[in-house]
Amino acid sequence: MRDAELLRAKATTRRVARTFALACRLLPRDVRDDVYLLYLVFRTLDDAVDEREPDAAERLAAVEAWAAGEPAASREVDVLEGLARRHPLPRAAFADFCAGMRDDLDGVPILDEIDLDRYCYRVAGTVGVVMAHVLGMREPARALPTAAALGMAMQRTNILRDIDEDLGNGRVYVAQTTLRRFGGSLAPGHREALLRDQIAQADALYDTGCGGIELLARGQRSIAAAAAMYREILRQIERDGYGAQAGRAVVPRRRKLLVAAIGR
After folding, report:
1. Domains in the chain, start-ordered, CATH in brackets?
2. Model's pTM, two decimal places?
């Protein structure tokens, strides 16, 4: 069972998360497979919600029950049970992740930057928290907030990269108050000031998050590479003219590898 899920996890990561897959190659071998499995859990729940699969709420409920220490059964729970035997998984973080997924499922609007920070923590900051527990930490009181900040920075990057794709699906993840403050339009060619503001906020989170990588017990190179490659998406948005044209900012693979090697 685990072997089948692991093969599925690796295939999923390489297919839909190429940047993350590159960073995973730098992980210590004794945790690499478990990180793939963790990604599978987060990704399959996220996809179930995004695609409005009929059993999405049921699968979230199973993970929520597991997080609360209650009996539960689902494909994701089976994977988490195995992982929990090897790592001190923070169950509260999974409950928070599911809360973020329910926000998406229910179409909860993001009214202001506080709402956006809460959403980014739930759907991505929690992933940073879980990863920190798997990799181990020095000074958890300092490491956990920075791990959450790095996850939140990556989620804000996703939001800025995917503005046009999300609009096409009827979704807006930019805070409503922020959108109004910059003219109320996300149309290509009309969002440079907004993107400059939001990129600065994402960069501040990267600064905080990257400052805590040294507090991880292992996997520092991998996380630093992931952060550098993801942050480069912001630089690509800038090079592309801050949304002058519709479409997703894409960092060429060669550029990704270069920034990962430099680790900036």
Report:
1. 2-262 (1.10.600.10)
2. 0.94
